[in-house]
Specification:
By secondary structure, the chain is α+β, with helices and mostly antiparallel strands. Helix content is about 20%, strand content about 35%. It has helices spanning about 10-15, 135-145, 175-180, 205-215, 240-245, 255-260, and strands at about 25, 30-35, 40, 45-55, 65-75, 85-90, 100, 110-120, 120-130, 150-160, 165-175, 185, 190-195, 220, 250. A seven-stranded antiparallel beta sheet has the order 4-5-6-11-10-9-8, sandwiched between helices. It has a four-stranded antiparallel beta sheet with strand order 1-2-3-14.
Length: about 260
């Protein structure tokens, strides 16, 4: 009987097939996805810069975390929004053995953290400050658009349609000087820790940014329903920090209901 030896790369792919893959369909007017089912409209003037699929490790509650397959799309602002970035990421973990940990805490780099229910979805909302030195989406924009801010202010909306999938919608702008002054660089590199003095610092800058970001992150059908042609682009050469982008993973034991119900 003939014997066949699978190449290592093919074997790895087959072992990884238990991780679902959600494809994003970029449009000039937004992004849509069939699983999980959602649509994001982007503001007029934003153009598609990059879109694709990749994989990266997600930190976990045990030493070796899983690999996540993720889809992403990134848009850049036009003359009315110079330097603005908008991106969408859908990350999947291998089921049934892994799930995303709940986003229940304010991170050191968050100015604001809240949870609310919109349209039947439970959303986590953050306003945070980020250094661009080692940030994957900053590098993606810099390599393909020729522009990069050193420090950015980000408004993030995330939700978990099922325990193995996390969706992240994020709008970024160059951080104003008032907010940069409140950030101290931490040893982690691209994570900036926010110093919170008494009261609400830089309230006008934060409130104005939040209004612009919430107007940009609108869940609904893209205005242009025709799929957009993805331009040729160069992805960053380094692996993204998945903890910073979408959180951490938890191992699901075989006797856990989440495992048995798959």
């Amino acid at each position: 009987m003939p014997r066949f030896i699978l190449p290592a790369c093919l074997l790895a792919f087959l072992l990884f097939a238990g991780c679902k893959s959600a494809g994003l369909t970029p449009h000039e007017g937004g992004v849509s996805a069939g699983r999980p089912d959602f649509n994001l409209r982007v503001p007029p003037g934003f153009r598609l810069l990059a879109a694709g699929n990749d994989s990266a490790g997600v930190p976990a509650d045990i030493s070796a975390g899983p690999q996540s397959r993720f889809s992403y799309s990134q848009y850049v602002g036009g003359p009315e929004s110079p330097g603005a970035l908008l991106h969408v990421l859908v990350a999947d973990l291998p089921a049934p053995a892994w799930r995303f940990a709940e986003e229940s805490e304010r991170a050191p780099q968050d100015f604001d953290f809240s949870k609310e229910k919109r349209g039947g979805r439970f959303l986590t909302l953050r306003t945070r400050i980020l250094g661009c030195e080692d940030d994957w989406f900053c590098a993606l924009a810099a390599q393909n658009n020729g522009k990069s801010a050193q420090v950015m202010l980000a408004r993030r909306i995330s939700f978990t349609p099922d325990i193995h999938t996390r969706v992240v919608l994020e709008y970024r702008e160059t951080a104003p000087a008032c907010l940069r002054a409140l950030a101290a660089e931490a040893p982690a590199g691209n994570i900036l820790w926010v110093e919170h003095p008494a009261g609400r610092p830089c309230a006008e800058d934060l409130d104005a940014f939040t209004r612009r970001a919430d107007a940009a992150l609108v869940l609904g059908a893209p205005e242009n329903s025709a799929p957009a042609a993805v331009p040729v682009f160069t992805p960053p050469a380094f692996e993204p920090d998945m903890e910073l982008l979408c959180g951490t993973a938890e191992h699901v034991d075989r006797d856990d209901p989440d495992y048995r119900n798959r």
